[in-house]
Amino acid sequence: MPRISPSLIRQASHIDQRLVRLLPICRDLPSARNELRWLAEHAATKPGNEHGKRLLEYYIRRRARGEPLQYILGTEYFGDLEMKCRPGVLIPRPETAASVSHLASLLLARQLPPRLRVLDLCTGTGCIPLLLDHELRKRFRDSTTSAEIVAVDISPKALALAKENLAAQPGAADFITFHPADVLWDSDTNENLNEPPSLKEALHARHGHGPMRNYDILISNPPYISPKAFRTTTARSVRHYEPKLALVPPDQRTPRSYDGVTSDEDDAIGDLFYPAILRHAQDLDVKIMLLEVGDLAQALRVAGMIVRQGIWDHVEMWRDEPGYPVIESVLVDGVVITVRGRGSGRSVFAFRGEGRWWLDSDISNEWASTPVSKA
Amino acid sequence: MTEIAYVARMLLRRLWTSHNALTQTHTQHTRHLTSTHTHLEKALPPRPKILDSEIQESFLKGSGPGGQKINKTSSAVQIKHLPTGIVVKSQDTRSREHNRKLARNLLAEKLDQMEKGEGSRMAIKGARMREKKASADKKARRKYRKLGEGKAGGKEGSGDEGMVGVESGAGDEAMDGEDVDGQAGRAQELPPKTKVPSPG
């Protein structure tokens, strides 16, 4: 990390000494000024204002040490919504919100099944189901369509927070439910009652035993950072304060050897969730799928898995701002794949079957010209 | 005590004017005694609509990895109006969505000002503010001239401009007069508290 220039420190110290302490973590003066203002505003809202100064001092000390601003303030904005945040649960990222909003903007209310069924895996704060529900209810205002969203997470802390966030959004509780489930564990039965159930078991518990019910849309922002990337490219505040459970997939190699991990092996650990999610998508007869990824290289690997699965009609990759009108294409396993938008590679999107008719026709016509088939 | 005297005087004056208003014909515009007369004024012209195709929006968060790997707190939004090249930036709130709306409003007002000049929303707003200020000043001067003969109360009610300190990346001329609607009038009307001579 480049050092902060002395002239910038001097400039900050002329304005306010507290900015100098925030500079190393905020990196630039406008951010430091904004964060100082937000921290002061937050301190002012707390009861017992006679300690306002001391409280602000405490907040600045925590922030200067690298604690994420969202854990200090207790919330983060996600699209139009303000989500509660707490240590132990991943803070929602604006790029995720951009992908979810873009997906919602593509869905056509009139073409969709009257009760759209959505599954969100590794939900964390519950930000994805809550924003999707918010966007869809805006979009479905003049139609009878509604979405039923089931969201799962392995972490009890995340589920507790997700339920708080659900309670804070008026009306959302009619459409969203949260359940404990382990996405990686593939089993029909729950053998150990102390462990979270497998996804199948959790869905059986939700819908009652019998034939597994299908889902129309599957979304997930799973842990996708490889162990090496976690050590080398992850921001300090993320590495030290956010839950590793939500960031790095478990190392399931047997026997585990910590020395001599090849870069392919490292990537494979980072990609661990995607094959499991793709199996679930097939088992649940999912028609539209949106998976977040870490960068374009991972997007290419995940797109490759989707192409090789052989059941999808169309695959594309979205960047941070998928609505930005730039389209490129890349070749993955002999298939031309569209890369949409601007920014880093952020998610992989796929649909099949009826899914095509649920999406904006201008785009699906364009999609029709580039079917996914092995060349 | 001086405050109570001041309020009582204002009430008396209001009674007096409403009595006048009933007995006299309206040859002149009603004098503004309080700043809550906005409902009598004509609504401000709307901000011009900006087409999404005319602007280029960017989120200022620097380059490098994103997603789970970093946790930037920047919610700043910058928009560029392509036909004119005007750039505005908003980073007031932690919500990117809210900053997008703020930036669009700022741009709309700038464009309006460029296009219509004197007839623009901001110009009309500013003119109304000045009018209010002028009438308040005049009133204050008249009052103190009457009351303050020989006393130290002849000071004019000026000073506090009532500008709310909203820090904004684009907070230049487009922001002038913003957020002070109805406040400046009140601020001007209150004479300096310590120097109000009691009537009689």
TrEMBL record, chain A:
User: The organism sits in which domain of life?
Assistant: Eukaryota
Q: Which GO terms describe its biological process?
A: methylation
Keyword entries, A-Z:
Methyltransferase, S-adenosyl-L-methionine, Transferase
Its transmembrane ranges are: none
GO MF terms listed in the record are:
nucleic acid binding; protein methyltransferase activity
**Presence of the UniProt keyword S-adenosyl-L-methionine in the record:** yes
Query: What's any one GO cellular component for it?
Result: mitochondrion
- Carries keyword Protease? no
InterPro entries the UniProt entry points to = DNA_methylase_N6_adenine_CS, HemK-like, N5-glutamine_MTase, SAM-dependent_MTases_sf
Q: Which PANTHER family match?
A: HEMK METHYLTRANSFERASE (PTHR18895), MTRF1L RELEASE FACTOR GLUTAMINE METHYLTRANSFERASE (PTHR18895:SF74)
In Swiss-Prot or TrEMBL terms, this protein is called: S-adenosyl-L-methionine-dependent methyltransferase
UniProtKB/TrEMBL annotation, chain B:
UniProt-recorded name of the protein:
Prokaryotic-type class I peptide chain release factors domain-containing protein
Biased region (Basic and acidic residues) positions are 128-138, 146-158
Q: Which GO terms describe its biological process?
A: mitochondrial translation
Gene Ontology MF terms: translation release factor activity
Q: Where in the cell is it found?
A: Mitochondrion
Q: What is its main location?
A: mitochondrion
Give UniProt keywords alphabetically: Mitochondrion, Transit peptide
Q: Where is the Prokaryotic-type class I peptide chain release factors domain?
A: 49-146
Q: Which Gene3D superfamilies match?
A: 3.30.160.20
- Please name the source species: Recurvomyces mirabilis
Q: Which InterPro entries match?
A: Mito_Transl_Release_Factor, Pep_chain_release_fac_I, Pep_chain_release_fac_I_sf
Record-stated family = Belongs to the prokaryotic/mitochondrial release factor family.
Recorded GO cellular component terms are: mitochondrion
Renumbered residue ranges of the record's region Disordered: 126-200
